[in-house]
Structure formats: structure tokens, C-alpha cells
């Protein structure tokens, strides 16, 4: 059984147990969030021993070359000595420049980083509440259009970081953020391709960023956005999206209300995924983006594929918040 050494202590790591679980189960504090190899909050560095290549999926080449890896995705095959990243690696300081309510549960948090952040609309950054607690938030801003970073943060009941954003953070506060990561963004390789965007709740933020990016880069193909919420009061950016559709003949916006049989004019009744796929039954040749509730995103990916979209043209960002896995049995076996 491989031994993980961290902070001078050794921990036996059974097969099927990640470095993250192996260290946190006995009480070591390692920052983490999604537990699914996505958010990169649990970045660590191997200072001795080899880590499997799969533990470096999605991280920057420059970090991978220095043996950084994702602890939640690392299942060691040999003894390793690991540390947390040196202070400052992949981290930037930023000033809060705005916190504006989009609806009762979602705020747009605006940040101005001290150093210019290289990112694309639709990628995500990690926002640190403190040294140990960070969460991922998608970028709704477009670097070429918006001076500041825009994050749409939904208030989660009893949520550590989202409640802090809503209730504690204020303009001019200083915060730490990470490098941007993620591959859910627009690339101008086929500007005539039709684009379908399907989002729920605050998943709209990322899609709004990608759509504005595509339009500003001169995308000529049809762009259709379907945004789903349970009630009419929950929609946001409605006027901005309507204005965008008036400015661009190739952009259409359909707000879908799931919780009401007869919504007011301008809103379509039904679950957003059902409406989007009914109105766009043949997705052959389309590029499709999903963002929001993990179940909608997971079903959407499958259904878009069955409707003809190629897997390489399906992009998705589920707002995963995986519970910490229960590894006690494996560790004590
Ligand atoms: C790549 C990525 C991008 C993301 N982008 C965004 C974004 O743009 N905007 C945004 O608001 N969130 C986004 N998230 C989710 C975000 O990272 C946090 O998980 C979320 O804000 C909750 O964190 P918290 O600290 O407030 O709650 P926690 O303290 O982590 O959780 C508190 C409780 O709420 C439950 N919970 C956590 N998250 C949710 C949820 N989303 N819905 C219902 N229950 C939940 C937990 O299981 C727990 O019981 C993203 C996640 C990922 C992985």
C-alpha cells in the first residue's frame, strides 16, 4: 500500500482512496470543493515520487511540469511526499468593486485583480474565503468588453462561501482568487456554426459571457439561448438579453418557466431542456453549451448527442458540489 508523507507524517493510502481523502479523513486540512477533478481547489505538489498522469488533467502545463496535481483525482501507485502549493502559486489578489443583486438569491460580484488575469468568458476561478476554503465561480465577464471580473453567485442555504459573498463581503474588500481554468468557452474556428445554449438558474452567467464573446468576435451562425427558472421572479438579465436579440439578428433568447402552466407573455412554459430540444430536434452540426444544475447538464449532454451533435461540440459546466466521500471503511479495512 503506497505511503503518502505530508507535513512529516505518513499515511497509508489504500487503492481506490484519493490523496485528498487519505489526508482529510484523519483530520488534515486540505482546501477542496468539487471532489470531482474540476475545480482545482485541492492543488498539491509532489516533492518526491511519481504521481499518475491522470491526476494532472486540466491543470496548466507549467504547473504539471512542477509536479503539481489534483489531490481529489490522485490515486497514488507508489510512495509520495506531498505539500500544499507554495504561498501565491496560481493565486492573485483582487479588490471587490461591486456586489449587485440580480434576483433575490443571486448577486453579481465584481472584482478587479491586481494583475491582469488571462481568461476567457465561461472559464471559472476559485474564490478564497480564507486559506482553507475556496469555491469555484464561472466568469460571466468578457475580457475584451468588461473591465472587471463578473461572478454570479447564488446564495446556497448554509453555504460557507456563498453566504459569505452575500452577507459579509463588501465593496473595497480584498480577496484571493485563482488562475482561470475550464474548457467551456467560445472559439472562433467556425463562425457559421449554429450555437445552442441551455442553462438553469445562475448557470446563465457563464452562457451570457460566452454569447457576448461569440457576438463580439463576429459569430455569424444562429445563436439560441434557453434559460430555465422555476418562477418569473427568478429571471435576470432579461432586458439585457432582449436588447442583445434586437441588436443581433442571429441571436434568440427564450426564457422558460418550469413552475407555472401559464406564464406571462414573453415566457415559455416548461422545463428548459425539453423546450430547447423540442424546438431544436436536429442538432447535427451544432455546437451546444449546457450550464447549471448537474442533472440537467448530464441529461442534456446525452440528449444533444442523440439529437446529432458531435461529442466534441458539446460543452458543459455542471455546478458540482460533491459531498466528501466516505472513505473511513477503506482506510480502516
Ligand atoms: C466549475 C464550477 C463552476 C461553478 N460556478 C458557479 C457559479 O458561477 N455560481 C454559483 O453560484 N456556483 C457555482 N459553482 C458552485 C460553487 O462552487 C459552490 O459549490 C456553491 O457556491 C456552494 O458553495 P458554499 O460554500 O456556499 O456551500 P457549501 O458550504 O459547500 O455547501 C453547503 C451545503 O449546501 C449544499 N450545496 C452546495 N452547493 C449547492 C448547490 N449548488 N445547490 C444546492 N445545494 C448545494 C452542500 O451539499 C451542503 O450541504 C460552481 C462549481 C463548479 C465546480
Oligomer: single chain
The molecules bound to the chains, other than polymers, are: flavin-adenine dinucleotide
Summarize the helix and strand pattern as letters. Answer: EEHEHEEEEEEEHEEHEHEEHEHEH
Q: What is the 3D form? A: globular
Count the E strands.
17
- Assign a percent range to the helix content: 10-25%
Largest sheet: 6 strands, antiparallel
- What is the average of the pLDDT values? 92
In brief:
This protein is an alpha/beta fold. The protein contains eight helices and 17 strands.
Describe this protein with a few key phrases.
333 residues; alpha/beta; six-stranded antiparallel beta sheet; 8 helices; globular; binds flavin-adenine dinucleotide
Mind explaining what this structure looks like?
- The chain has 8 helices and 17 strands.
- Helix 7 links the parallel strand 16 (287-292) and strand 17 (314-318).
- The chain starts with a strand and ends with a helix.
- The longest helix is centred in the middle third of the chain and has 13 residues, at 204-216.
- The mean pLDDT is 92.
- A 6-stranded antiparallel sheet has the order 9-8-11-6-7-10.
- It is of the alpha/beta class and 333 residues long.
- The chain has helices spanning 19-24, 61-64, 160-167, 204-216, 238-247, 272-279, 294-306, 328-332, and strands at 3-6, 9-12, 43-48, 68-70, 80-83, 91-101, 106-113, 124-128, 134-138, 149-154, 174-178, 195-200, 223-229, 251-257, 268-269, 287-292, 314-318.
- Residues 33-34, 38-39, 124, 135-138, 152-154, 156, 158-163, 202, 205, 317, 319-321, 323 line the site of flavin-adenine dinucleotide.
